[in-house]
């Protein structure tokens, strides 16, 4: 007889506890936020005149060599992330339909933290933004752009091994 | 030691030059090579077979690549419209079936049959043709126009600007190029970035 009142009350209690569950976890459990952007929104993120060396890596969950090099990129990023003048940005070219499922799951599984994450969804203007990133770029991934104060310093199509990535960053740092 | 270094240097420079020459492929304005490639009906096909054509829509495409598949209906539509106007589609599978079994000759036959391809679907056996064109993706389009005895490249790149949604493609590169060519002028947009899967080779 009292079940009608107890169940909703219990339900409310469970809901309240579950709702606050996130705050019980440690900060490192939270996955890095990723937002969908078009190129107009993306470009300013790495073109600021702030003397920061931006390492912009283009990748996708379906791209095997991209996935293979990401741990190296994360390792190198943690070596430099304390510097004010260094920032790594990972730009996914995954289908935007897959953001909530495969992409976010991938980010969580691979622990992609300490980097800025975007998903570039701008299919109709690929013929504009691909050459804008680099005139020699065929659009294939992985590809990495090294840019500071809006000026492209280096563009590397293809995978970059850990030591090579570190070497490039050291050479380009002011 | 000195001569060895010289020899090695020459070898390296020459091979670099050769690979870059091949990696380039055609530019708009170049003459495109003819070929003799096997069609899904077993017969050999060359551009020279088409005495009445004004030109060709050469499309490097394949069975497996999701981008190529997304464009299949549009490729059939292009052939249906422009074949009658003198520009037939000639589809060529550039992939090595040993690397990508889904792009085997038998599966080409199946795909063409199930989709009702209205054009030749040729296999680039030995993969000698696509490197000369410089194709890097599937699909990758080369519009050729006959000028005298030559087939001149007039457009290179993507079919339109939305691989995902045909109804939301607002820049129909290939159609626009063909319409302009049919008026006797050169296309305004002569080349675009080809979007698709890489070509499979050993």
Describe this structure in words.
- The complex is a heterodimer of chains A (174) and B (202).
- Chain A has 174 residues and is α/β, with parallel strands linked by helices.
- Chain A has a single domain (27-172), classed as Glutaredoxin.
- Chain A is built from 7 helices and 6 strands, in the order H-H-E-H-E-H-E-H-E-H-E-E-H.
- Chain A has helices at 3-19, 21-24, 39-46, 64-80, 99-109, 126-133, 162-172; strands spanning 34-37, 53-59, 86-92, 116-120, 143-148, 151-157.
- Chain A has a 6-stranded mixed sheet with strand order 1-4-3-2-5-6.
- The termini of chain A are far apart.
- Chain B is α+β, with helices and mostly antiparallel strands and 202 residues long.
- Chain B has a single domain, classed as Glutaredoxin, CATH 3.40.30.10.
- Helix content of chain B is 33%, strand content 19%.
- Chain B has 5 helices and 9 strands.
- Chain B has helices at 2-24, 66-83, 105-115, 130-133, 173-182; strands at residues 37-39, 44-45, 55-60, 89-93, 121-123, 137-138, 140-147, 150-157, 197-198.
- Chain B has a 7-stranded mixed sheet with strand order 2-1-5-4-3-7-8.
- Chain B is globular and about 65 Å long.
- At the A-B interface, helix 6 of A face loops of B.
CATH overall fold name of chain A: Glutaredoxin
User: If classified by CATH, what would the architecture of chain B be?
Assistant: 3-Layer(aba) Sandwich
What's the N-to-C terminus distance of chain B?
A: 34 Å
Number of domains of chain B: 1
CATH class of chain A reads: Alpha Beta
- Shape category of chain A: globular
Q: For the largest interface in this structure, which chains are involved and how many residues does each contribute?
A: A-B, 11 and 17 residues
Low-confidence stretches of chain A: 17-28
């Amino acid at each position: 007889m009292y079940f009608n009142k107890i169940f909703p009350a219990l339900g409310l209690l469970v809901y309240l506890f579950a709702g606050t569950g996130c705050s019980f976890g440690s900060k490192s459990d939270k996955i890095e936020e990723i937002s969908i952007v078009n190129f107009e929104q993306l470009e300013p993120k790495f073109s600021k005149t702030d003397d920061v060396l931006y390492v912009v890596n283009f990748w996708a969950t379906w791209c095997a060599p991209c996935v293979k090099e990401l741990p190296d990129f994360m390792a190198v990023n943690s070596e430099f992330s304390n510097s004010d003048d260094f920032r790594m940005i990972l730009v996914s070219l995954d289908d935007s339909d897959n953001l909530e499922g495969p992409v976010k799951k991938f980010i969580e599984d691979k622990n992609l933290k300490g980097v800025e994450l975007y998903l570039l969804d701008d299919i109709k203007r690929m013929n504009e933004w691909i050459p804008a990133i680099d005139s020699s770029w065929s659009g294939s991934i992985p590809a990495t752009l090294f840019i500071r104060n809006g000026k492209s310093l280096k563009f590397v199509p293809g995978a970059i091994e850990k030591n090579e990535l570190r070497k490039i960053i050291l050479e380009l740092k002011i | 030691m000195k001569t060895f270094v010289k020899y090695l240097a020459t070898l390296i420079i020459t091979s670099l030059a050769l690979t870059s020459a091949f990696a380039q492929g055609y530019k708009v304005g170049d003459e495109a090579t003819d070929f003799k490639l096997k069609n899904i009906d077993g017969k050999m096909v060359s551009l020279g077979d088409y005495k009445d054509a004004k030109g060709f829509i050469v499309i490097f495409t394949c069975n497996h690549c999701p981008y190529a598949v997304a464009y299949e209906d549009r490729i059939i539509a292009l052939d249906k419209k422009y074949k009658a106007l003198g520009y037939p589609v000639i589809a060529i599978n550039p992939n090595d079936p040993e690397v990508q079994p889904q792009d085997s000759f038998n599966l080409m036959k199946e795909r063409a049959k199930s989709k009702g391809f209205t054009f030749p679907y040729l296999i680039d056996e030995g993969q000698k043709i696509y490197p000369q064109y410089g194709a890097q993706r599937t699909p990758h389009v080369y519009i050729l126009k006959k000028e005298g005895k030559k087939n001149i490249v007039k457009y290179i790149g993507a079919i339109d600007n939305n691989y995902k949604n045909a109804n939301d493609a607002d820049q129909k590169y290939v159609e626009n190029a063909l319409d302009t060519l049919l008026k006797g002028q050169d296309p305004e947009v002569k080349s675009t970035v080809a979007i698709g899967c890489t070509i499979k080779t050993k």
